[in-house]
Specification:
The complex is a heterodimer of chains A (1104) and B (135).
Chain A lengths: L1 H16 L29 E3 L1 E2 L2 E2 L2 E7 L12 E4 L14 E3 L7 E5 L5 H5 L6 E2 L4 E4 L17 H10 L2 H11 L1 E2 L4 E2 L2 E2 L6 E13 L6 E6 H18 L3 H4 L2 H9 L40 E4 H5 L15 H14 L8 H7 L22 H4 L16 H5 L6 H7 L1 E2 L5 E2 L7 H4 L9 E3 L9 E5 L4 H6 L21 E2 L2 E12 L4 E4 L3 E4 L12 E3 L3 E10 L13 H33 L2 E9 L2 E15 L6 E17 L5 E8 L3 E3 L2 E3 L2 E5 L18 H22 E3 L9 E4 L6 E4 L1 E14 L5 E6 L11 E3 L8 E8 L8 E8 L3 E13 L7 E3 L4 E2 L2 H6 L4 E3 L5 E2 L7 E8 L1 E4 L2 E4 L5 H4 L12 E2 L8 E2 L6 E8 L27 E4 L30 H7 L16 E5 L1 H13 L9 E4 L2 E5 H4 L38
Parallel strand pairs in A: 5-9, 7-14, 22-51, 23-24
Antiparallel strand pairs in A: 1-13, 2-3, 4-5, 4-13, 6-9, 7-8, 10-11, 11-12, 13-14, 13-15, 16-17, 18-19, 19-21, 20-21, 21-25, 23-45, 25-41, 26-29, 27-28, 29-32, 30-31, 33-38, 34-35, 34-46, 36-37, 36-41, 39-40, 42-43, 42-44, 46-51, 47-48, 49-50, 54-55
Helix pairs in contact in A: 1-5, 16-17
Chain B lengths: L1 H47 L3 H7 L6 H15 L6 E9 L4 E8 L17 E9 L3
Antiparallel strand pairs in B: 1-2, 2-3
Helix pairs in contact in B: 1-3
Classes of the chains: A alpha+beta (1104), B alpha+beta (135).
């Protein structure tokens, strides 16, 4: 039946054509022909040939379109031919050249390379006789038989071209103007999920009506059909396209695909499913209402990029999550494994992480995701690969060994990696040890036990580096990111450990009434402080190392070889960027120098040709194919009757620039300009990019590599976070309080030691630490090189059109570096603590208070802590604390120091801050946990308890006090310390000393007082002499009454507590308190003396 | 007449005796009084003038020189006889170690009528004293 229909159609066509053809039309020696394949002349036939240069054209046009068939913005179509003989000059795949045509026939093709949809959208194609540029690709299959028929699976074969060949896909994407990796076409970002490679078979047909060569039409089937359908649709209907591009199988596949991905089954790449009779009714393909077009193959873009080798349950490529998601669902949709998974499973399981041990990767899970069966990659067990995280489950379920063995020998390897060890004979597990980074802590809380404490991180660097993956905000993480700062780049990784030790003062003894302080006694000048406690000293040492080292790992830890490799590549990039820049400069200079060198006349394109009549067959014999009737047909012919621009010729000017040379190659810019009066033809090319941005970026990239390797060598941890705050408290009855101590001495040292791969020291350097208190984390010396060094090639580029010159750059080649920062702090009392002492024996913390008291005072020069004169002898407590909460700000070796921020294993307990020292009724802020307790002993020599007085002057506890503990004694100037034996007795303690000249106090001030012997002192000029008349005494008594008979009013005018002059005496004469004698009218040799003659006045007027 | 003369003589002698008795009694009492005042006042003044600053700073028992002088005058004037004039002469005040040497002289009305000349009498008391710390 089908044959009959074809036959009838053919006959009708033949009849119609024969009516306009003068002679018979028949096939030449081509395989595609109407009628028999014979060699009769074609004088009376419409003849055609499908062959080009002897064989049917086997080629495809590849375009990039969206789901509706619309061309992707910025892309062009590419014609790929199977035969290199048809591509001028082509020898290998992907070579391009002009199409090689038969000699003789005229040539005609579409002016533009259209897609199917673009052909359908045009009424008529604009044509040209110019030969197209095509590419040679041997993989294009022979999809047209010699007789013009096609294979049923031709379309499938065409699709598979790109599915199986990623290189071909990348190549053709590039030719079309797109980047396969970024999915960008120029500046346009294509929609990954809505992109298709449209494959349209190319066709060639030469038609002639006599024995001449006629015209050959080239293009896609749609294009050729569009160009020839006016007269030869019958030919197409019978032969050429039908067998190749449309079949029921094809239509079925189109409808089945992607039904669950919201992609219309009937609108894929703009193609329309053709079913039923339409598949064999080609006349409808180009029908204006249906617009099927000549069908073509297509490839869904994700079908190419979503490689089936990645599914299921294998790590996805690091493409965008959106792409991963789509690929996973596409995998389920396409059901490559034969219905093992359902779309529901894909939807649910997709995007799950694969399970323990593989948390950082995304997987496409389609079935049983998350179970041990699917999540344990057996390729890593046992012991072949370190396991990134807790692999217990997988290790125990590994099938080769028993669960018991797995449980027994599952362990960390004891070094920097974790392995699953299943068997006792596995030597990598025999050394398994746990890595405990808990620091060693030896804190003293009582000076009776020790006056020093320490805390040290482990010194097992293997263990330290083993925790390199520890979270940043953890104690272990601080080995690598000290307060968030780290040294980590592609060439090294630095970890740091700490040692902290401190020393506090011991017990001491002090006299009541005296003072003590906390300071360095060696640096105290003219100190009147009774006891100087050694200052609390806190020493923190940070030791940082590059990389991971242990006895068994001796490899260089700074990856110098990687640096050299990277630097060499970056160096080449610098040269390439420079070369590109100079070439552009040369071109630009040539462009700027371009002048008109010639001109020529140019023609216009023809819009409408004249119509010519020619003899043709208007009726055929349906059986023989012979022409039954000839008639007149019309066709385009010269002359042109409508030009595109209205006139025929215009002038084009040829421009040519000066040739500029770079690296021996000349660069000349030529171009053509002209105007036809209505539009411009040709223009000056755009300026070339002469910006040096790319070159500078390349230089920066190269320099950054050198900076990295120097950072690995010259890093310095400032260790600023080691900043202990220390306070002191003591239980003195009158002066008890807690004082925050200040640092009066700080020392920062920083040294680096450089080693080679044999662990030999190659150099050392001491760093300047001036900036250490202003920088947190690390600082670097980006210039210097210490230890071992070497050189590598470096391009130095300068000068216009001058090539780069090879030079060298020095880089550090040390294998590893150890950097040590030590901070030492010593503490003292803060400023102005009880520094001022009044003549009444009261201490004040600032001079203002002392002045306000209205009593002469003395500046002790140093902060000090007094012991009251009335303090009873005995043992008292004092405290240091360095872990406390001060206004809500915790501090232990510094408030940002890791032991306070992370307090590993709860090593420190702040304790209670309201602590009552012994004998005190009020609390002081001192911790009872890590506070440091010590004692001091008070000896009261000045106002001791009086066992005989139980009523007055006692302490709160009822213990009475004596007056000042001295004996008033009238003496003889010749025998001041007599005894019953006549030998004399020992003088009191205060009289047992000597003067600066070495004489005894007794000799100087008693027996030879004022330089004279014994009673002769009464022959000297009096130091003071006053006359008290009754009137004077009445005046004094009145004054005494005004002061309440208080003789301790201390109306003294002193010089820093010494050389005190009595204002009573100074004003005594004027106020009538006393008179002077006539013999000593100035009141005596020492009356009115100042500090300059304070002592000398005792020795003046001798013998007077 | 003769008896009258004798009577007058006896009365006169009696008056003379009474004068001398009064005179020597006055001298004796003044001397004793002056010494006691001198001794007690010196002790009190030395204790009062102990410099607590020196003890706090240096741990020594030291007195303030002029504070001692002032304190001595004020205490002496408070306790001395308003019928007499005193001459206070201080020959030595040593701050550290504390030691003083001073002399007090007084008159028993021995002032010239003009009041401009003060006569020194033999009623003089001297005192040398120290403050001694226990061993």
């Amino acid at each position: 039946m089908k044959k009959k229909i074809k036959y009838v159609l053919f006959m009708l066509l033949a009849l119609t054509v024969s009516m306009g053809v003068v002679g018979q039309a028949k096939a030449l020696d081509d395989s595609g022909h109407i009628g028999n394949n014979d060699s009769n002349a074609c004088s009376s036939y419409i003849c055609y040939s499908l062959r080009i240069n002897g064989d049917p054209l086997q080629g495809i046009r590849v375009s990039l379109v969206d789901g509706t068939g619309k061309r992707i913005t910025g892309t062009i179509s590419v014609d790929l031919l199977r035969s290199h003989a048809l591509v001028s000059g082509a020898n290998s795949n992907w070579d391009s050249g002009k199409l090689v045509m038969d000699k003789g026939p005229n040539f005609k093709r579409s002016y533009y390379m259209n897609t199917r949809n673009e052909v359908l959208s045009k009424y008529s194609l604009k044509t040209t006789t110019a030969l197209p540029t095509v590419y040679y690709w041997s993989m294009v299959p022979k999809y047209i038989n010699v007789d013009g028929t096609g294979s049923d699976d031709a379309t499938k074969r065409l699709e598979s071209l790109f599915l199986a060949d990623t290189y071909a896909t990348k190549k053709v994407m590039s030719l079309m103007g797109c980047d396969y990796s970024t999915y960008k076409c120029g500046n346009y970002q294509m929609d990954y999920e809505n992109t298709y490679i449209l494959i349209e078979p190319l066709a060639y047909i030469r038609i002639h009506v006599s024995d001449d060569y006629g015209t050959g039409y080239y293009g896609t089937a749609s294009e050729v059909y569009s160009m020839t359908t006016t007269h030869f649709s019958d030919l197409w209907a019978k032969k050429y396209p039908l067998a190749i591009f449309v079949s029921k199988t094809k239509a079925t596949n189109l409808s089945k695909k992607y039904s669950n991905l919201n992609i219309s089954p009937n609108k894929i790449a703009g193609l329309t499913t053709i079913t039923g009779n339409e598949t064999s009714n080609f006349s409808s393909y180009m029908d204006s209402s249906k617009k099927y077009g000549v069908a073509a193959g297509h490839v869904f873009f994700p079908d190419i990029t979503c490689s089936t080798s990645k599914y299921p349950n294998k790590k996805l490529e690091s493409t965008s999550p959106k792409t991963q998601n789509f690929c996973c669902k596409l995998y389920a949709e396409k059901d490559y494994l034969g219905h093992q998974y359902t779309m529901a499973e894909a939807n649910v399981k997709y995007d799950e992480k694969k399970g323990t041990g593989f948390k950082d990767q995304l997987y496409c899970c389609l079935h049983k995701c998350g179970t041990t069966t699917n999540t344990c990659p057996t390729t890593t067990y046992p012991n072949t690969t370190p396991v990134a995280s807790s692999p217990q489950t997988c290790c125990k379920t590994y099938g080769e060994y028993t669960t018991t063995q797995a449980k027994t020998y599952y362990a960390s390897k004891g070094k920097s990696q974790v392995y699953c060890c299943l068997h006792p004979s596995d030597n990598r597990c025999t050394t398994a040890t746990s890595c405990n980074t808990t620091p060693t802590v030896n804190i003293t809380n009582d000076c009776a036990n020790s006056t020093s404490g320490e805390i040290s991180d482990i010194d097992d660097w293997t263990c330290i580096f083993k925790t390199i993956s520890a979270s940043k905000n953890t104690y272990d993480g601080q080995f690598y990111t000290s307060n968030g700062a780290s040294v980590s780049n592609s060439y090294c990784n630095v970890a740091c450990r700490e040692d902290i030790n401190y020393t506090l003062s011991n017990s001491f003894t002090i006299k009541a009434g005296r003072t003590f302080t906390i300071y360095d006694s060696d640096n105290m000048t003219n100190s009147e402080i009774g006891v100087v406690l050694s200052p609390p000293t806190f020493t923190g040492t940070s030791t940082c190392r590059t990389g991971y080292r242990s006895a068994s790992v001796q490899n260089a830890t700074i990856n110098v070889s990687q640096f050299l490799s990277d630097y060499a590549a970056a160096n080449e990039s610098v040269q390439n960027a420079w070369d590109a820049l100079q070439i552009n400069i040369a071109k630009q200079k040539s462009l700027d120098s371009a002048r008109i060198v010639s001109s020529h006349q140019a023609g216009h394109n023809c819009d409408t040709y004249s119509t010519c009549n020619y003899s043709c067959c208007v009726s055929y014999d349906m059986k023989t194919g012979k022409c039954l009737k000839t008639g007149t047909c019309k066709r385009d012919c010269e002359p042109c009757i409508e030009w595109h621009h209205g006139s025929r010729y215009y002038t084009l000017y040829n421009w040519r620039g000066t040739t500029y040379y770079y690296k021996g190659k000349g660069y000349t810019i030529s171009y053509t300009t002209g105007s036809d009066g209505s539009s411009e033809h040709g223009e000056r090319p755009s300026d070339f990019n002469t910006s040096d941005a790319a070159y500078r970026a390349a230089v920066n990239t190269r320099d950054a590599l050198l900076l990295k390797i120097k950072q690995c060598n010259n890093y310095q941890r400032t260790y600023q976070e080691f900043n202990p705050e220390v306070s002191f408290a003591y239980g003195e009855e009158k002066y008890q309080s807690s004082y925050s101590l200040k640092k009066f001495y700080s020392e920062i040292t920083s040294n680096s030691t450089y080693y080679n791969s044999s662990n030999n020291v190659t150099g050392t350097h001491t760093w300047n630490t001036n900036r250490y208190d202003n920088v947190t984390g690390f600082i670097y010396d980006s210039y210097s090189i210490f230890g071992s060094s070497s050189t590598t090639k470096k391009y130095v580029c300068s000068g216009e059109l001058q090539p780069c010159q090879a030079s060298t750059v020095q880089y550090p080649s040390n294998s590893w570096v150890e950097q040590v920062t030590t901070r030492i702090y010593e503490y003292s009392l803060p400023d102005n603590v009880y520094r001022y002492v009044s003549k009444q024996g009261i201490s004040y913390s600032n001079e203002y208070e002392a002045i306000n008291a209205g009593v002469a005072y003395h500046d002790m020069k140093y902060s000090n802590l007094p012991i009251a004169y009335t303090t009873l002898g005995g043992e008292y407590e004092y405290y240091y604390e360095f872990y406390y909460d001060s206004t809500g700000d915790e501090n232990l070796f510094g408030k940002n120091q890791k032991y306070i921020k992370y307090n590993p294993e709860n090593l420190f307990d702040k304790g209670d801050t309201n602590y009552y020292p012994s004998g005190s009724s009020s609390p002081i802020e001192i911790t009872d946990a890590t506070g440091y307790l010590c004692t001091y002993t008070v000896e009261n020599d000045i106002i001791p308890p009086d066992d005989t007085n139980t009523t007055n002057g006692g302490n709160d506890d009822g213990t009475p006090l004596k007056d000042i503990n001295v004996v008033y004694r009238p003496i003889s100037l010749t025998n001041p310390f007599p005894s019953i034996t006549g030998d004399g007795r020992a003088a009191g303690s205060n009289w047992q000393g000597t003067t600066s000249s070495g004489k005894s106090f007794i000799d100087t001030y008693i027996t030879n007082n004022r330089g004279v012997s014994g009673e002769d002192v009464y022959e000297e000029t009096p130091m003071y002499q006053f006359v008290l008349t009754p009137n004077n005494m009445r005046a004094i008594r009145k004054y005494n009454n005004s002061t309440g008979n208080d003789y301790n009013d201390y109306t003294l005018d002193c010089d820093d507590g010494s050389y005190c002059r009595s204002t009573f005496l100074d004003s005594g004469v004027g106020k009538g308190y006393f008179k002077f004698t006539s013999t000593n009218s100035d009141g005596g040799s020492c009356y009115g003396s100042s500090n300059t003659d304070w002592e000398n006045c005792r020795y003046t007027h001798l013998g007077g | 007449m003769k008896e009258s003369f004798w009577g007058i003589f006896v009365v006169a002698m009696g008056l003379i005796c009474v004068f001398f008795i009064y005179f020597f009694q006055d001298v004796t009492n003044t001397d004793e009084h002056n010494y006691n005042i001198l001794k007690e006042t010196t002790e009190a003044a030395m204790i009062d003038s102990v410099d607590l600053v020196a003890y706090r700073g240096q741990g020594i028992v030291k007195i303030d020189r002029e504070k001692f002088v002032e304190n001595f005058l004020r205490r002496f004037a408070e306790n001395a006889s308003l019928s007499k004039t005193y001459v206070i002469t201080i020959y030595d005040v040593n701050e550290y170690p504390p030691k003083v040497s001073l002399k007090v002289g007084s008159t028993a009305g021995g002032v010239d009528p003009s009041g401009s000349t003060i006569y020194n009498f033999d009623i003089v008391n001297r005192l040398d004293a120290i403050l001694e710390s226990p061993n």
